[in-house]
Amino acid sequence: MLKLYNTLTKKVEEFIPIDPNEVKFYVCGPTVYDYFHIGNARSFIMADMVRRYLEYKGYKVKFVMNLTDVDDKIIKKSLEEKREAKDVSTDYINAFFEDITKLKIKKATVYPKATEHMHEMIDMIKKLVDKNYAYNIDGNVFYDVKRFSEYGKLSGKNTEELEVGARIDANEEKKDPLDFALWKKAKEGEPFWDSPWGKGRPGWHVECSAMSCKHLGETFDIHAGGNDLIFPHHENEIAQSEAANQKPFVKYWLHFGFLNINEEKMSKSLGNFFTARDVLKKYSAEAIRMFFAQAYYRGPLNFSDDLLTAAEKGLEKINNLVDKVNSEIKKNNSGIKPEFEFNSYYKKFEEAMDDDFNTSQAVAVIFDFVKDVNRVVAPLDNVDVSFYNDVKTFLTKTAENVLGIVDFNKTTTGDDKLTNDLIELLIRLRTEAKQNKNYQLSDSIRDRLKELGVILQDSKEGTTYKIGK
Fold first, then answer.
1. What confidence tens digit (pLDDT) does each residue in 341-367 have?
2. Which pTM does this prediction carry?
3. Spatial distance between the Cα atoms of 419 and 265, rounded to a whole number of angstroms
4. Helix locations, 57-147, DSSP H
């Protein structure tokens, strides 16, 4: 039974989708004015793991991630670079897709663009004006926060205590400092669309409300995003959507913790960020995903080279087994099939993920699995290929398909059958030499293999190897 922490109710709840066969899932995507940073990547990757696990459990998932391609930041960038805002957003949309592909993030079912949903946004604003939840002042339309009695139910903030700040701009036109823009009157040189209130463009918050309702319905299962979006963005989405449609907006709200640099939130505004694109030049996608998976998704996580390097080293243990499995399946040997309780590892993996997507415990299960497989096969000369097929199936379903931390299709130097056979032969000769206390021969085999780029790794479960420096 899958349980998750719902930000709306502030408690862990059993997950029961509205439609038992399909989960409708919305994630706030990027504002496309720059390359996204590795802190954004945490939200995108963790949402991807949640989506993959729902699919593992047999749900069909309609996964929607928006692209904010009209925004103050995009306009500012276009003015700085003296080119059209559309050209800026197009370039960074293309970069976004390049980077999420490299990070092994599954493609969304739909990537709605704000500029392609003006009709839906204007319709929603019209509804709000007609129901007296919004008002027009000289072409600027604002949401009247005090009209929505449940404002603050997601963030826990009290409207009486809220002060102007963050994304709430002091504006003399507004009835109340807490009121927020639904439609912004066009300024000279800015992109605009026609509306009942004149030429202008939508506010940021209404974009997500209109696009999510268009593609997932007026009430849907999961809305996710970073912790920084709880207030005011997600709070405002609820206020707009529920006032316009007179229905509950979202059943479960998931929020991902901040990625910190020296215990301070990573953000472009603070200038303490690394783009995902730059981090990918130094670390593999699997190592980055492992780094995120080893932490609780809701909590803060400190970014450091040491932690990413540790994640990479941890992956080596798994990848050594992946390489061995690929090699053994190619050999297609008949032989002994060891007794091994595969089902118990599936059960432990599912128990971890069912516990509010506890990816760190799920990773621990995979490490235990790898260790136990190595221990079982170490004393055996000839293991039946069916055993390795079962090992591959487990790792494919869990480490690859859900967490995305391994890739069985990656070509490695060690996949060549003759190379593997010769290395395995030398490892057996070295083991025999050690058993016969011929340590000079044993060390010589190890050292000569190292010169050839084959690194032996001894453990109590046996000797494994990797092709490397």
1. 999 999 999 999 999 999 999 999 999
2. 0.86
3. 48
4. 72-81, 85-102, 118-130
Q: How far is CA 174 from the centre of its chain?
A: 37
Cβ burial of 146 (10 Å; 0-12, 13-18, 19+) is: exposed
CB 24 within 8 A of CB 221: yes
**200 contacts: CB under 8 Å, gap ≥ 6:** 139, 140, 183, 184, 185, 186, 192, 193
Closest CA to 29 of 17, 5, 47: 47
Question: Does residue 400 sit in helix, strand or coil?
Answer: helix
Contact (Cβ atoms closer than 8 angstroms) between residue 362 and residue 293: yes
Top mean-pLDDT range of 120-129, 175-184, 423-432, 434-443? 120-129
Under DSSP, the state recorded for 414 is: G
Q: Tell me the C-alpha to C-alpha distance, in Å, between residue 12 and each of 110, 169, 253, 259.
A: 29, 34, 11, 23
Structure tokens at 335: 């032989």
pLDDT of residue 404: 98
How far apart CA 13 and CA 27 sit, in angstroms, is 20
Decide if 41 contacts 277 (C-beta within 8 A). Answer: no
Peptide bond preceding 300: is omega within 30 degrees of 0, i.e. cis?
A: no
> What are the structural domain ranges in the chain?
3-282, 314-467
Nearest C-alpha neighbor of 195 from the set 210, 182, 212, 208 = 182
Q: How many CB atoms lie within 10 A of CB 158?
A: 9
The answer to whether the CB of 136 falls within 8 A of the CB of 129 is: yes
Over range 431-454, report the average pLDDT. Answer: 88
Higher pLDDT, 297 or 420: 297
- Under DSSP, the state recorded for 314 is H
Q: Are 65 and 27 in contact (CB under 8 A)?
A: yes
Q: Which fold has domain 3-282?
A: Rossmann fold (3.40.50)
Distances (CA, A) of 258 to 43, 205, 300, 358, 456: 9, 21, 5, 17, 39
Q: Order the strands of the 220-226 sheet from edge to edge.
A: 60-65, 22-27, 220-226, 250-256
Contact 335, 379 (CB under 8 A): no
